[in-house]
Amino acid sequence: MTKSSSNVMALAPPAPNKRETVCIFGTGDFGRALAHKLLQCGYPVVFGSRGSQQPSSVVPKDAEVLSHAEAAQKAAIIIIAIQRQHYNFLTSLAEVLRGKVLVDVSNNLKINQYPESNAEYLAQLVPGARVVKAFNTVSAWALQSGTLDASRQVFVCGDDTEAKKMVMDLVRALGLTPLDQGSLLAAQEIENYPLQLFPMWRFPVFLSLGLTMFFFIYSVALTVIHPYVYQKKDFSFFIAITIPNQVCPVMALTLLGLVYLPGILAAILQLCRGTKYRRFPDWLDKWMLCRKQLGLVALAFASVHVLYTLVMPIRSFVNWRTSNRIVSQALNNKTEPLDNTRAWISDSYLALGILGFFFFALLGITSLPSVSNSVNWREFRFVQSKLGYLTLVLCTAHTLVYGGKWFLVPSSYKWYLPPIYMLSLIVPCAVLVVKFVLVFPCLDKPLTQIRQGWERNPQHSK
Ligand code: NAP
C-alpha cells in the first residue's frame, strides 16, 4: 500500500528548482533521520522497505513507503540504510538498480571486520550500480537533532566521478561539508573512522599518565618521605598543592621538549642518510603526527601550574612560614636587608615564567583549526617552529633560574637523587643544544639541501 502523498509538505520553504526525489532503503534509525533532514531541505523522499504494506508510524509522514523495487524506480540516488549483513537481497534487484547511484552509509562493529569494505562488497553484489560511500561518520541522532557541529564533515569516495559529484551536491544541499576521499578503495579507511577513539591522543595521554605517575611518586619520596624518615617531620599535606605544583611544570616542560625532539631526531636521520626520500621508522612517524596533541597536553599542565601558583599566597603553610620569619626577626630585633641579587633572580624567574606561558598559550591558540585555517603554511610554520622554540627557551630558562643556584649544593640531592625540576631540564636542554648545533652552517646547509630534494647517494634512496 502506498502512503498517500496528498499531505506531503517539506518543512523548508519550497526550493525554486524542484529537488530530485531521493530513495532510502530501510526505515531504521538512520534511514528515518536522513529522511527527516532531506525533507527539511526540500527533497521528496521515498522509502524502500520490507514493511511497505504496513508502514511504520515513526516514518516521517511526508515520505512515501514503497517496496524496494518500486521505490528504486522513483529516484536516481538510493541510500542503503541497511546493515551490511542484510545486503544479499539487493542481488535480486540488480536490474532495477542498474545505473543507479547507491550510497553506502554502513559501519562495522570492529576495525577491518571484513576483508573488503562494505561499499566494495555492495559494488560486487550489484555490479551495474554506481556505488558511493558517504554519510557513515554522521550519526542518526546528530542528523535528527540538528546538533551537527562536531560531524559536519562527510567523507565521500567512489569510482564513478559523476555519481560522486551527485552525492557531494546532495551532502552540500543538506548543509554538510563533503570531503572527497578518492576512489572506492578509500572506503575501508572511511568505515574505520567512527570506530577510532581519539587515535592521535592515545600516545600523548598514556605517556602523560605514565610520566605524571613517575614524577608524582618521585616527588613524594623526596618531599614527604625523606623529611619524615630523617627529621620525623610530617609534610604529607604537600600532596595537595606543593607536589602537584612541582609535577605540573615538570610535565609541561618535559612534554614541550618532547614536541620538538622528534623534529631534531628526523633532522639527524636525514643528515646521516643524506636523503629525505627514505621513510622514517614507524615510531618516529607516529610521534611526529601527535606533536600537536603532546603540545596541548603540555599547555594544560602549564595552565594548572599557573593556577596552583596563584593560590600560593593564601596557603596556611606559606602564611605560617612568613609570620614565623617576621616574629623571629622581631625577637632578634634585627631586620634582613634587601638582597638585590635574590630580588633580581626572583623577578627574572617570574618574568620568564609569565612570558613563557604567554607564548605557550599563543602556540595553543594557533593550533586551533579555526585559527590555523586563517594563516598560510609559512605563517603557521613560523609560529609553531620559531615561537615554539622561543617558548621552549623561555620555559627552560624559567626553570634554570628557579633552581640553578642549587645545582652544586650537595644537600639538594636527597638520597643522591636530583630534585624533580632538574629532571625536567633533561629533554628541553638536549633539544636546545642539538638544535643550536644544527643551526651551524656546516650542518644547516646540507640539511636544507636534503629537504629540497638533494641526495648524497641517489642509488640508495628508495
Ligand atoms: P536499524 O535501525 O537496525 O535499521 C536497519 C533497517 O534495515 C531496518 O529498519 C530495516 O528496514 C532494514 N532491514 C533490516 N533487516 C533487513 C533485511 N533482512 N533485509 C532487508 N532490510 C532489512 O539500523 P540503522 O541504525 O538505521 O543503521 C542503518 C545503516 O546505517 C547501518 O549500516 C549503519 O551502520 C549505518 N549508520 C548508522 C548510523 C546511526 O547513527 N544509526 C550512523 C551512520 C551509519 P525496513 O524494516 O524498512 O526494511
From TrEMBL:
<keyword id="KW-0812">Transmembrane</keyword>
<keyword id="KW-0274">FAD</keyword>
<keyword id="KW-1133">Transmembrane helix</keyword>
<dbReference type="InterPro" id="IPR028939">
    <property type="entry name" value="P5C_Rdtase_cat_N"/>
</dbReference>
<feature type="transmembrane region" description="Helical">
    <location>
        <begin position="205"/>
        <end position="230"/>
    </location>
</feature>
<keyword id="KW-0410">Iron transport</keyword>
<dbReference type="Pfam" id="PF01794">
    <property type="entry name" value="Ferric_reduct"/>
</dbReference>
<comment type="similarity">
    <text>Belongs to the STEAP family.</text>
</comment>
<dbReference type="InterPro" id="IPR051267">
    <property type="entry name" value="STEAP_metalloreductase"/>
</dbReference>
<dbReference type="GO" id="GO:0046872">
    <property type="term" value="F:metal ion binding"/>
</dbReference>
<feature type="domain" description="Pyrroline-5-carboxylate reductase catalytic N-terminal">
    <location>
        <begin position="21"/>
        <end position="108"/>
    </location>
</feature>
<keyword id="KW-0406">Ion transport</keyword>
<keyword id="KW-0285">Flavoprotein</keyword>
<keyword id="KW-0813">Transport</keyword>
<feature type="transmembrane region" description="Helical">
    <location>
        <begin position="293"/>
        <end position="314"/>
    </location>
</feature>
<dbReference type="GO" id="GO:0006826">
    <property type="term" value="P:iron ion transport"/>
</dbReference>
<keyword id="KW-0472">Membrane</keyword>
<keyword id="KW-0408">Iron</keyword>
<dbReference type="InterPro" id="IPR036291">
    <property type="entry name" value="NAD(P)-bd_dom_sf"/>
</dbReference>
<keyword id="KW-0560">Oxidoreductase</keyword>
<feature type="transmembrane region" description="Helical">
    <location>
        <begin position="387"/>
        <end position="408"/>
    </location>
</feature>
<feature type="transmembrane region" description="Helical">
    <location>
        <begin position="348"/>
        <end position="366"/>
    </location>
</feature>
<feature type="domain" description="Ferric oxidoreductase">
    <location>
        <begin position="250"/>
        <end position="395"/>
    </location>
</feature>
<dbReference type="Pfam" id="PF03807">
    <property type="entry name" value="F420_oxidored"/>
</dbReference>
<keyword id="KW-0479">Metal-binding</keyword>
<protein>
    <submittedName>
        <fullName>STEA4 Metalloreductase</fullName>
    </submittedName>
</protein>
<dbReference type="GO" id="GO:0008823">
    <property type="term" value="F:cupric reductase (NADH) activity"/>
</dbReference>
<dbReference type="GO" id="GO:0015677">
    <property type="term" value="P:copper ion import"/>
</dbReference>
<dbReference type="GO" id="GO:0052851">
    <property type="term" value="F:ferric-chelate reductase (NADPH) activity"/>
</dbReference>
<dbReference type="GO" id="GO:0010008">
    <property type="term" value="C:endosome membrane"/>
</dbReference>
<dbReference type="InterPro" id="IPR013130">
    <property type="entry name" value="Fe3_Rdtase_TM_dom"/>
</dbReference>
<feature type="transmembrane region" description="Helical">
    <location>
        <begin position="420"/>
        <end position="443"/>
    </location>
</feature>
<dbReference type="GO" id="GO:0005886">
    <property type="term" value="C:plasma membrane"/>
</dbReference>
<keyword id="KW-0967">Endosome</keyword>
<keyword id="KW-0186">Copper</keyword>
<feature type="transmembrane region" description="Helical">
    <location>
        <begin position="250"/>
        <end position="272"/>
    </location>
</feature>
